[in-house]
C-alpha cells in the first residue's frame, strides 16, 4: 500500500503540470452549458433531452479517454522511454495501479462536473436519476481506461487517439437498432447504453426491458473488467518499456 500511495503522489505531480486537469474541467462544463442553452429553446420533451445528453457524454467518453491516456503515456515515454515508471518503484503492479487511479480520478471528476452542472440547470427530472447516471458513466468507462492505457503504452499516443475515435463512432451507432442485442459485448458502448436503460426505467418502471438490459450488461461487464485489470497487471509486470510508435 505505501508503494501505491507513493506512485499516486508521483503521478499526480506529473499530472498537475499538464493541461489535462483543465481539459477535465473545461470540456465537461462547456458541454453542460451548450446543451442547457440549446435545450432552453428546444421543443423536445424532458425524456428526449436527458437521454440525448447522456448519450452524447457516453459516446464522447472513449475519445476523451484515448486523448488522456495517450498524453499520459507520451509523458512517460519522453521522460526516459518509460524507465522512470518501470524502475522508479520496487512494485510494478503498484506503479500501474497508481497510474490507472490517477487517470480514473479526473475522469470521475469530469463526470461529476458534466452531470452536476447539467442537473443544476435542468431540474425537470429527479436528482437520483443524475446520481445513478453518473455512476453508470463512470462504471462503464473503467474497461476503456484499461484498454487505452495498454494501447498507449504499447503502441503510442496516436494509436490510442485513433482507437478512441473509432470507439466513439461505434458507441454512437450502437445507440441505434444496430446495437440491440450486441452492445453488452462492446465495452465502448457501455456508458451510453447503460444511461439509456436508466432513462427507460425512469420513463416506465413497469417495463422489464430496461432491467433485463442492465442485468445482461452487468453479467458481461463486471467479469470482463476484472479480467482486463488482472491481465493488464500481468502484462505490465513483464513489459520492458519498448518504445511507443507515433
Automatic annotation (TrEMBL):
The membrane-spanning stretches of this chain are: 21-41, 53-70, 100-122, 128-147, 159-178, 217-236
The record ties this protein, via Pfam families, to: ABC2_membrane_4
Keyword flag Membrane: yes
Is Protease among the key words of this record? no
Write out the entry's keywords from A to Z: Membrane, Transmembrane, Transmembrane helix
Please, which domain of life does this record's source organism belong to? Bacteria
Q: Which InterPro entries match?
A: ABC-transptr_permeasesu
Know the name of this protein? Lantibiotic immunity ABC transporter MutG family permease subunit
Please report the organism this UniProt entry assigns to the protein.
Answer: Caproicibacter fermentans
Amino acid at each position: 500500500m505505501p508503494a501505491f500511495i507513493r506512485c499516486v503522489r508521483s503521478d499526480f505531480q506529473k499530472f498537475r503540470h499538464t493541461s489535462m486537469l483543465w481539459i477535465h474541467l473545461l470540456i465537461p462544463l462547456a458541454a453542460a452549458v451548450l446543451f442547457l442553452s440549446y435545450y432552453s429553446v428546444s421543443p423536445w420533451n424532458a425524456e428526449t433531452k436527458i437521454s440525448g445528453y447522456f448519450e452524447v457524454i457516453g459516446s464522447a467518453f472513449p475519445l476523451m479517454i484515448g486523448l488522456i491516456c495517450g498524453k499520459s503515456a507520451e509523458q512517460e515515454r519522453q521522460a526516459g522511454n518509460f524507465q522512470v515508471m518501470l524502475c522508479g518503484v520496487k512494485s510494478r503492479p503498484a506503479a500501474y495501479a497508481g497510474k490507472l487511479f490517477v487517470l480514473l480520478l479526473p475522469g470521475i471528476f469530469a463526470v461529476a462536473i458534466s452531470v452536476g452542472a447539467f442537473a443544476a440547470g435542468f431540474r425537470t427530472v429527479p436528482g437520483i436519476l443524475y446520481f445513478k447516471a453518473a455512476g453508470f458513466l463512470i462504471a462503464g468507462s473503467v474497461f476503456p481506461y484499461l484498454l487505452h492505457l495498454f494501447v498507449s503504452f504499447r503502441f503510442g499516443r496516436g494509436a490510442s487517439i485513433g482507437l478512441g475515435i473509432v470507439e466513439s463512432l461505434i458507441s454512437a451507432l450502437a445507440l441505434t437498432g444496430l446495437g440491440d442485442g450486441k452492445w453488452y459485448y462492446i465495452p465502448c458502448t457501455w456508458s451510453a447504453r447503460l444511461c439509456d436503460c436508466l432513462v427507460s426505467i425512469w420513463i416506465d418502471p413497469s417495463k422489464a426491458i430496461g432491467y433485463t438490459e442492465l442485468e445482461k450488461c452487468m453479467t458481461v461487464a463486471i467479469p470482463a473488467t476484472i479480467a482486463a485489470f488482472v491481465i493488464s497487471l500481468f502484462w505490465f509486470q513483464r513489459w520492458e518499456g519498448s518504445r511507443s510508435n507515433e
